[in-house]
Structure formats: structure tokens, C-alpha cells
Design a protein that fits this description.
Blueprint lengths: L21 E5 L6 H13 L5 E3 L18 H13 L3 E5 L2 H10 L3 E4 L1 H4 L2 H11 L6 E4 L6 H13 L5 E5 L17 H9 L4 E4 L1 H5 L5 H10 L4 E5 L17 H10 L10 H42 L6 H17 L4 H23 L4
Parallel strand pairs: 1-2, 1-8, 2-3, 3-4, 4-5, 5-6, 6-7, 7-8
Helix pairs in contact: 1-2, 3-5, 5-6, 11-13, 12-13
The protein binds phosphoenolpyruvate and manganese (II) ion.
């Protein structure tokens, strides 16, 4: 299905996005007028922040947690904009939220991860945004579903919004992880691959859930050529009413930004360009060899299928599969490949091999 997302306005055409990387910062939640204005002024002083965030309707996992100050916070945000000179944005989860934001003249809004999962809610928000021209930021859904993310971006675009950005904030997961939400970088990479011009930011705060990991995720986002970040900042992080463990002071934010190594998508250095080309053609050649070998392997698999068919032997042979897993993992380790990678590869190979043999075996004579 072709998508209109290819025609979105690039970040360089946004009035607020003239800098090469866009930084959204501000506290997780607007807690009081004083707290918000002081934070806004401190962040403006850093001269590194382009947009101020602040949640006033907070989607919390448990009902006894701080659920935000509500609509009164919009007035405080507008006052903070006046004091700091920075545009302000908040999270919207339904049409009433959008209407309240538009009434108060907020500069932008974002759709949170728990809302992006629900097409009814996203459509309701999109309908409420019809005919207005505010930038809309769409966080990825909590579950790792790229199509749902794309669908939400499309719904917003169909409402006539042209300044849309995607925010990668990680994904819910089962089991242990050092991250609050697993980055699963392959998903934002797939989004970027499908829509090369889409504005894509990273939210290290909600990925990490803790301060000490922020730098490494913020750096990785730059290494993947993302367009900027949303990073939560609070004057007294430990006392924050929500997400205390992941917020940093404006000073720490500046140190974090100073430590980021910005790499360029391209280089003009001729020697570098030549060496890069040489390495790339070596990789191209190896990839060709791998693909030829995989084709060769699959042809043997077909032969195997025919052979098993004649003897009426089952396709799946658990002992053989175990032996393949063991021997290949060992070999992979010897040549410096990770176990995780080789297991993923073998799993795909095995699936394809079973599919091929099933086709051969069930072919009518
Ligand atoms: C937030 O930005 O404070 C927030 C609730 O984020 P997310 O939707 O990514 O959980
Ligand atoms: Mn938060």
C-alpha cells in the first residue's frame, strides 16, 4: 500500500526545527506553575532546547499514581512560554485534550505510546486536529508493531497535518531487561527505511527508565542518524511526581549533550569516500556469495524433501535439528559471531527449509 507519509514536510522546513538536531525537553509532568516556569527558564538558559514538554494528563499504570494537574496546567504552560520564550507542548489522549490545547494556543502536541496502540483514539485525536496547523509528535505504540505506528502517523496526516514526527520510546516486554522499554532499534530503522524523509526522534528517558543509561541511548540515536531527542528534565529529579528515576537536571542535560559525538551521514573527504566504497564493494561481494550459497543449500533441501517423500519419512527430525544448532553455534563462536545472531539465522533457515520440504512433499505427482 503506498503511503502519503513520503510527502511530509522535512524537519528543515519546520519553523521550530531549523537546528540540525531537534531537542524537546521539560519535566515528565507539570507539577505546579512555579516548578514549570522555573524549569522552563532554566532550560531556555541552556540555549540547547527547542521545545518544552510537560505532561498534564498522565497515563499511569496504577490508579493511585499522580495523574497530572489537568487543564489548569495549560495556563501555566502558556505563562512558561512567555517567561522562557520557548514553544510548549503536551500529551493528548482524546478530543477534549486536543480542544483544550488549541483553546490555550499550545504550540505542538504529542500522542503517547498508550494511545498510539488504539486506532479509535488516534482517529478521534486526528479528527479534533482537522484544519489546524500544529506539529504533532507520535510516539511508537507500547507493543512492537510497526504497522500500528505507521497507521497512527497516517491518520494524523490525513487530518491535514504536515509537520509530523515519530518518537521512538522503546517497547514493553516480558522478562528482565536493563531498560524500562526495550529499544528494539530494528523497528525505528524499518520506519526510516520505508520513509527516508520522516522526522524521527528518540526518547531515551522512557527507553531507559533510569538516568545512568541515557547517554548511551542518546548517542546510539545519533549514530543511527535520528533527528533529535525528547529528554525529560526536572529541577529536582528525585522529588519529581512522576518518572523520578529517569529525569535529569538542566545542567546534567547540558553535560549529556556535550558528551554526544555527532556523526555525519556523509563525508566530503575523498580518501574516506574511496575507502568506504572499497569496503562496501567487499561487503557486496560477500553478500552475493552468501546468497548463492543459500540458494545452493535450498536446492539440496529440495532434493532431501524428494528423498524423504520416497521413503515416507517426516520432515522435522529433532535430533538432526539439535545437532545443527550445536555444531553451527560452536563454529559461529569460533569465528566471532554472537550466539544470539546465529540462533536467529538458524531459526529462519530451518523455517524456510521446512517450508521448502513441505512444498516438495505435497506436490501432486
Ligand atoms: C511521557 O512522555 O511522559 C509519557 C507518558 O511517555 P510514553 O507515552 O512514551 O510512555
Ligand atoms: Mn515520563
Amino acid at each position: 500500500m503506498s503511503s502519503l507519509l513520503h510527502s511530509l514536510a522535512p524537519l528543515s522546513h519546520w519553523p521550530i526545527g531549523r537546528a540540525s538536531t531537534l531537542l524537546i525537553s521539560g519535566p515528565c509532568s507539570v507539577e505546579s506553575e512555579e516548578q514549570y516556569i522555573e524549569t522552563a527558564v532554566a532550560l531556555a538558559k541552556t540555549s540547547r532546547v527547542h521545545l518544552l514538554r510537560g505532561g498534564i494528563w498522565k497515563p499511569r499504570t496504577r490508579p493511585n499514581a499522580f495523574e497530572g494537574v489537568g487543564e489548569v496546567g495549560l495556563e501555566w504552560m502558556v505563562n512558561a512560554r512567555r517567561e522562557s520564550g520557548l514553544p510548549v507542548m503536551t500529551e493528548v489522549a482524546n478530543a477534549q485534550h486536543v480542544e483544550a490545547c488549541l483553546k490555550h494556543g499550545l504550540d505542538a502536541v504529542w500522542i503517547g505510546a498508550r494511545t498510539t496502540v488504539n486506532p479509535f483514539s488516534v482517529q478521534e485525536i486526528a479528527d479534533a486536529l482537522k484544519g489546524v496547523d500544529v506539529p504533532v509528535f507520535v510516539k511508537n505504540p507500547v507493543n512492537p508493531d510497526l504497522q500500528l505506528w505507521i497507521g497512527a502517523l497516517e491518520r494524523v496526516q490525513r487530518a491535514g497535518i504536515n509537520r509530523i514526527a515519530a518518537i521512538h520510546r522503546g517497547f514493553s516486554h516480558l522478562g528482565d531487561s536493563i531498560y524500562r522499554n526495550k529499544p528494539m532499534w530494528e523497528i525505528p530503522i524499518a520506519l526510516r527505511t520505508e520513509f527516508p524523509n520522516i522526522t524521527l526522534l528518540c526518547d531515551p528517558s522512557h527507553i531507559c527508565g533510569r538516568r545512568d543509561l541515557l547517554q548511551q541511548i542518546a548517542q546510539k540515536a545519533m549514530d543511527l542518524n535520528m533527528d533529535g531527542w525528547m529528554i525529560e528534565s526536572h529541577l529536582d529529579p528525585d522529588a519529581a511526581l512522576s518518572d523520578a528515576a529517569q529525569q535529569i537536571t538542566p545542567d546534567t542535560l547540558v553535560s549529556l549533550l556535550d558528551s554526544i559525538h555527532i556523526r555525519h551521514a556523509q563525508s566530503d573527504d575523498i580518501t574516506f569516500v574511496h575507502e568506504l566504497q572499497a569496503l562496501r564493494s567487499r561487503i557486496d561481494k560477500v553478500d552475493e556469495e552468501i546468497i548463492h550459497l543459500l540458494g545452493k543449500r535450498m536446492r539440496i533441501t529440495e532434493e532431501l524433501g524428494r528423498f524423504k517423500k520416497e521413503e515416507s519419512v517426516t520432515i522435522f527430525q529433532i535430533d538432526r535439528w539439535k545437532e545443527i544448532l550445536e555444531s553451527r553455534t560452536m563454529l559461529a563462536e569460533q569465528v566471532g559471531l554472537s550466539k544470539e545472531f546465529i540462533l536467529k539465522y538458524l531459526e529462519q533457515l530451518h523455517k524456510e527449509s521446512i517450508r521448502t520440504q513441505t512444498r516438495v512433499m505435497n506436490k501432486p505427482k
